[in-house]
Write a structure and sequence with these properties.
alpha/beta, Spore Coat Polysaccharide Biosynthesis Protein SpsA, Chain A, seven-stranded mixed beta sheet, three-stranded mixed beta sheet, about 25% helix, globular
């Protein structure tokens, strides 16, 4: 009970956004909900938040909508051996400790999970775009090699994956491929393996899958990401979600709010029934990050032009195992000059500098 577990306490009326901030900022990686007498009434994990977003809840909704009301707990009398057994059996790294009337008194931790996990799953980065909307910055530099802070976007991406335990990279190139190859080489300077596949002609956001080696392990889905995405999404949680739900492909999605700039009038038979002033509509949009299983990869012929949405639509009709993974972490598609300028200011306040 060494860590300050009181930093992760919430009341049921707190917002999902407040729970999210706790989970992202505190070492415990979960939040506990208590009543006015400090009795434990619920626990919130990252997965609870993502499921809530998929069920059309917003970050301003209260946490009682998403919390687990029957959390696994133990008492102070529980032996260390038994605590480890409980956490191992349920696949959790921390366990709330309560007294006889369910008042929260602390948290125990499964410290034996401290060793870093290494993933053999390939990471495929799409880095062949022209970046025309970022001209003149891209006149003599491919967009993924533009510097955000002190490093190119592509290097920040690769370092984020390395930090998460990934070490096998493929990079798809087209525009100024030599700039990328000269900078990264075979990846040995970063302690990883980098292999390049080159698009002779632009193949769309999904066509480069057909250029990957045919001997990729069939049991290891790949993570695929556009080379102009700046994000601190948890790639291990994304991969685990895909595997646990038997996905053919998983698309990361992020919320996008659009405010209609006028009052919206609903009428019937010539009479006004309701009026809403400047309503906000909420959508999920494609975040340009995917997990793709062998079934989808092998369906793309070599040098076949296709975009990822079209490719995934084809597989939706076959097996209906195309999943969506809502991301609530930082995400920015650096497609325009204002995005590029925003990234320059964001990079200093986020954990991207390694």
């Amino acid at each position: 009970m060494k860590k300050n577990w009181r930093n992760v306490l919430l009341k049921s009326h707190n917002s999902i956004r407040e729970a999210l901030e706790i989970i992202n900022n505190e070492a415990l990686r979960f939040a506990m909900v208590i009543d006015d007498q400090e009795r434990l009434i619920g626990v919130i994990t990252d997965g609870d938040i993502r499921r809530g977003l998929l069920n059309n809840l917003s970050l301003t909704d209260e946490v009682h909508y998403i919390m687990s009301r029957t959390p696994i707990t133990a008492t102070q009398a529980t032996s260390r051996q038994k605590l480890v057994e409980i956490m191992t059996r349920h696949g959790i790294l921390s366990l709330p400790i309560v007294d006889a009337d369910n008042t929260l008194v602390g948290v125990e931790f499964l410290n034996q999970h401290s060793q870093k996990t290494h993933y053999k799953n390939p990471v495929f980065i799409m880095a062949g775009g022209f970046g025309t909307r970022l001209q003149p910055l891209t006149d003599h530099c491919p967009k993924p090699m533009l510097k955000i802070g002190k490093k190119p976007i592509l290097e920040t991406q690769i370092l984020s994956f390395i930090k998460a335990g990934f070490e096998n990279f493929y990079i798809s190139t087209h525009y100024m491929p030599e700039k990328i190859k000269e900078y990264f080489g075979d990846g040995s300077k970063l302690g990883v393996s980098i292999t390049y596949v080159h698009e002779q002609e632009p193949l769309g956001t999904g066509g480069a899958l057909g250029l990957l080696p045919k001997d990729l392990p069939k049991d290891l889905p790949i993570i695929m990401i556009n080379g102009d995405i700046l994000t601190n999404v948890d790639f291990t949680r994304l991969l685990n979600f895909h595997v646990e739900n038997d996905g053919d492909a998983t698309m990361c999605v992020t919320e996008y709010d659009y405010q209609i700039p006028y009052g919206v009038i609903n009428g019937q038979n010539g009479k006004i029934k309701s009026m809403v002033e400047k309503p906000i509509q909420r959508f999920f949009i494609n975040a340009g990050i995917y997990v793709v299983s062998h079934r989808v990869i092998q369906s793309v012929p070599e040098n076949h032009r296709i975009d990822m949405p079209k490719l995934l639509e084809q597989h939706m009709s076959e097996r209906d195992q195309i999943l969506m993974f809502p991301i609530h972490e930082y995400w920015l598609d650096i497609g325009r000059l204002d995005d590029f300028n925003r990234a320059q200011s964001d990079i200093h306040s986020l954990e991207f500098e390694h």
